[in-house]
Write a structure and sequence with these properties.
The chain is an alpha/beta fold. The chain is 29% helix and 28% strand.
Length: 328
């Protein structure tokens, strides 16, 4: 049977281990579309899976990789035919379903989105799940009535993948953006993406007051824990915060005061199981609303062989912007 290269995570006595190895095509899971992944990314969740820092992987062995730009190789699904260019994000890939760091993948056709022109596969994975999640956050703020004229919007974890794209998107759409980061050395980078203000992560790291001085009309939080609690306490009356990450922890040591005394809304963002119509809207928006020159500033291109060390770096907070993976 045919084999292909893949990053495979296996269970060990001490936890898990990831390795670039040969994988047999006959061991792919069921699905009505066979893909040839061409580009992928390294997201924070990929890093957690590769390092075993969190229980992301639910079955073993598991091919890692939560997203890809791919070409359809074979299909029995009515929406797709061989040669179609498609995107896949989430749906348990790299967790419960064999993922995208591989020369071949088999998935459900209902999970796929057509690659929107004028994006190339590389462009799309420069955006990746991180950028797609950032767009979902922006859309959620818009639905909550937070527009460019509402006031300043805070983005936490701003130098990371989601944060970088969020800053660039909000800036392009006309928002005034405050960027929070633990790496103040990235201040020039964040201002090039469109941030008007860069603040130290430490300003949001201490125990949160029930209500603090009102600072922001809205926010996009990738960190969670005390950072999100502080952002909520500082959000202005009738503001909204979109929460999409937990790099700082799964807890939320906050009070109900922002919600019942200022009418603040906390908007949960689920990028993994978002409905197809929402995904299609997000990718169409990304094709038009993201400044391609700013996107280029946040990209580093790597090969499949580089993914495992990159996964360790992203968990340690040592990756700026977006890592694009060439799958040969």
């Amino acid at each position: 049977m045919a084999t292909f290269k893949a990053i495979v995570i296996t269970k060990t006595e001490s936890g898990t281990a990831a390795a670039l190895t040969d994988f047999d095509e006959q061991d792919l899971m069921e699905g009505d579309v066979t893909l040839r992944p061409e580009w992928s990314t390294v997201n924070y969740k990929d890093g957690l899976a590769i390092t075993g820092k969190a229980p992301v992987v639910r079955r073993f062995p598991m091919i890692a990789g939560v997203d890809a730009a791919a070409t359809v190789e074979a299909s029995s699904h009515p929406a797709w035919k061989p040669g179609d260019k498609v995107l896949l994000n989430g749906w348990g890939c790299g967790e419960t379903h064999l993922g995208m760091y591989a020369g071949k993948a088999r998935v459900k056709g209902d999970w796929l989105v057509a690659l929107p022109p004028p994006l190339s596969g590389r462009d799309a994975m420069a955006i990746g799940s991180a950028g797609y999640t950032a767009m979902l956050c922006v859309m959620a703020l818009e639905r909550a009535g937070i527009g460019p004229g509402s006031g300043q919007v805070i983005v936490t974890g701003a130098a990371g993948g989601v944060g970088s794209v969020a800053v660039a998107l909000l800036s392009k759409l006309g928002y005034e953006v405050s960027a929070s980061t633990g790496r103040l050395a990235e201040t020039d980078y964040l201002k090039e993406l469109g941030a008007t203000e860069v603040i130290a992560r430490a300003e949001l790291a201490g125990p949160a007051r029930p209500l603090a001085r009102e600072r922001w009309a809205g926010g996009i939080d990738t960190v969670g824990s005390t950072t999100l609690a502080n952002v909520l306490s500082m959000t202005r009356r009738s503001g909204a915060v979109a929460a999409c990450g937990n790099a700082g922890g799964m807890d939320l040591p906050a009070s109900v005061a922002p919600f019942i005394l200022r009418g603040v809304s906390l908007l949960g963002i689920d990028s993994v199981m978002a409905p197809l119509a929402v995904r299609e809207e997000a990718w169409q928006r990304l094709a038009t609303d993201l400044d391609r020159q700013k996107l280029a500033k946040m990209i580093e291109e790597i090969d499949l062989v580089d993914v495992i060390p990159a996964g360790k770096k992203i968990v340690e907070g040592a990756v700026r912007g977006r890592l694009v993976v060439r799958i040969r």
